[in-house]
């Protein structure tokens, strides 16, 4: 375990001609930032509250500026720590605000959650600094989150009362607020496997630009079965090959009770592949829950991308067991499934490391975001992939989502209001 006491620091980095000067918020383990740097971005500042993640940033990028809780800093503070003199020097702001407020697995309090309020502060930073581009990455739950602020502002007041209670009102609010700040916006729900990540991981990516023409949707580099002449999705096997010279795997362990069941399962199998008489015993009360429950007692499949990497590989509903061995996948295996460089160091305990990697943006997705912004910046025309399946879900693009939501608003405004006599 690596321990350090990391305090705020001012960046030693300098603006580099022909590289986009970038500020990173909710930086975490820097998956997004690694991807952007590989595409020619110059990340001057990280902003991170979590102590272990701050250690990770300092261990790997000691020259980068670093601040803590975004709510404690003014714009002048941010610029000073980034070693910048003026707002106009900022080309890009990126960040993945804490997702638990919008996650489908949580209580989903949206903006009324403390973490949701941090999201609102991030919007304020974008509005105040006015970068040429911004990127917001988040969980799919943001697309169905309900707006829940107790005090309305000038943007939410324009959304009729009933529409504010509809699924997706949080995202609609974010879009309309940033459009009002002068940004052309595009977003969609993307599976990272389509961009070379050996992992099926769906995240919404919102990109804004101050130019009149929005940034195009991300250009896929891979497809599930080789459609559009692209290479097929990368697999667990291809990722783990990178670890052939790694001698030690750091991992947590299963209990003997759980190992009993994993011994009966092969690569790619889960609890449903257990003998019938053992299924209820293995699942307990979870056996009677709805849904497919395919994450229970799940072994990874060598020949497919990994399921979404989570913050703990031994959680009952989201097991990530090694395809052959009787253990959860290791920190090192987490790293390659999220495409971190093998030399990347992580601070904190093993639990901290799992959490940091599990919360990170896959490097391949970060690179895809970077390529699309660079292409837009240089005035290039993006490749088009008609009817490409970016994720498992339909009507997730910016145009489809906003049009559907605005139809509901128009419908609500047209409906007569009946007053009780």
TrEMBL record:
**Top-level taxonomic group:** Bacteria
In short, the EC number is 2.1.1.37
Q: Which InterPro entries match?
A: C5-Methyltransferase, C5_DNA_meth_AS, C5_MeTfrase, C5_meth_CS, SAM-dependent_MTases_sf
- What does the UniProt keyword field contain? Methyltransferase, Restriction system, S-adenosyl-L-methionine, Transferase
Against Pfam families, the record matches this protein to:
DNA_methylase (PF00145)
Question: Is rRNA-binding found in the keyword set?
Answer: no
Q: Which reaction does it catalyse?
A: a 2'-deoxycytidine in DNA + S-adenosyl-L-methionine = a 5-methyl-2'-deoxycytidine in DNA + S-adenosyl-L-homocysteine + H(+)
Where along the chain is the active site annotated?
A: 99
Is the keyword Cytoplasm assigned to this protein? no
Q: Looking at its record, which EC class is this enzyme?
A: transferase
Q: Which NCBIfam families match?
A: dcm (TIGR00675)
Q: Which PANTHER family match?
A: CYTOSINE-SPECIFIC METHYLTRANSFERASE, DNA (CYTOSINE-5)-METHYLTRANSFERASE 1
Q: Which family does it belong to?
A: Belongs to the class I-like SAM-binding methyltransferase superfamily. C5-methyltransferase family.
Protein's name in the database: Cytosine-specific methyltransferase
Tell me the lineage of the source organism. Bacteria, Pseudomonadati, Bacteroidota, Flavobacteriia, Flavobacteriales
Gene name of the encoded protein: dcm
